[in-house]
Predict the structure.
Amino acid sequence: MFENWGWRGKTDNKRPTTPEAQEVQLIASIANADRQAFEALYRLYFGRLARFLDKMTRDTHLIEEIVNDTMLVVWQKAHTFNQTSRVSTWIFAIAYRQALKAIQTFDAAVESNFEHHAAETRYEPEHQMSAQQLEGDLNRALRALPMEQRVVVSLTYYHEMGYKEIAETMECPVNTVKTRMFHARQRLRFMLSDSMEEIL
């Protein structure tokens, strides 16, 4: 939808000095219907959102559509961004809500294979772990988690968010985030082999 918009930036004597300040400036420009700024933000966030949504939805066909829906909301609502949170927290919160809506709208049975994945991970024959096997087992275990736990793990370990940011993204109390992480870690320990417990 937005891939062909180009952005080379504007000459500004007061250029933002930090990545966060640059993102705030991009949002301000987008609020003024600056398509070049929007393209810059789109390119900046596409990969991050795609990785997050892959962990959340487990449906590759939905990812690009949800990213585009998310960025459309950013385009339409940029004027409402009031800097009470980081730009990344605001955008990830939009992506989270758009993903929930997409899952319901398209009736994507993201939890339908839970037992299959859990059993597949739990009853695999024992084997000598390599780095690739370790990563594969971990990914299967993550995909077997309930969605809300999977989101917390993804935002913590793949996007380096703290509990407060995750709570803002998911619109829930910090203690709820902590509880979801606790149960996620317990489930991962159960599904993964004893030799992996030291990394959790």
In short: Residues 35-57 form the longest helix (23 residues).
